[in-house]
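Appendix B. Raw example, untouched.
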Amino acid sequence: MKKSVKVLLFFLCAIFVGVFAFSGYKLFTIMHGYKASEKTYSNLSERYVAPIPSTTPYAAPAENAGPTPAPAPTPEASPIQVDFDQLRGECSDIVGWIYSEGTKINYPVVRCANDNPSTADYYYLYRDIHGNYSGNGTPFLDVLCAGDFSDYNSIIYGHHMNDGSMFASLDNYRKPDGQFAKDHMVMYLNTPTQNYRVELFAGYLTDADSSTYTISFPDTSSFLLYCQEMKAKSDFPSDVEIQPGDRIITLSTCSYEWHDARYVVQGRLVPLGSVTNISAVQNG
């Protein structure tokens, strides 16, 4: 074999080995990032979030106690309880916690006053709540929205991660059989001052700069017309009808049908019972 051919083969082998090593390194980095993000938010959930029992343990009536009175109706509550006092000690930018049963959506929501929408400079786009780099980022509220979710439309952004974390499960609302949407028509948003049931009314593909991302409206009629138009685009049916006085949230994540495509899911905020802001979930 000619020397020039050997050199060429050696050079090609070196390139292949280099590409393989680099690809392995990138894959390791991505997987490590997924694990680190999962650990961060699992730890937060374990420390500051607790489930609320959905039923009261049965107690047999005492003998000769007479007829058992009908139980008083129990006000609906969020299925989770969040210790915002302690949680905000780790990150003062936290404004809420979004939860969707049976999915990976179980995350704090942050809002950074230094975000700049005009330059797409978003602090938590690639940072966890501690400010460390994270490819997963942290779900964040649009800085143009009020931190108490009092706007007509409050917009929360989250990444579409390949491991199914963050807002990747939103993509399931577009499945043709509609079963996922049927089984997940309600989410919950807890905040330091009010908890909400999120009743979903629309999910669809849109552009990053579409009217979907309208936050304020000149009047109630304009807002109701907007909600009707969004609902008409939806990939799934919903019985939810937005009424005067309602407020909604929009969950937005990347999609890949075209440049700057987004998939969004929208829901009405329904205030739940009074908030009990526990001071130590795990320690009692």
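End of appendix B.
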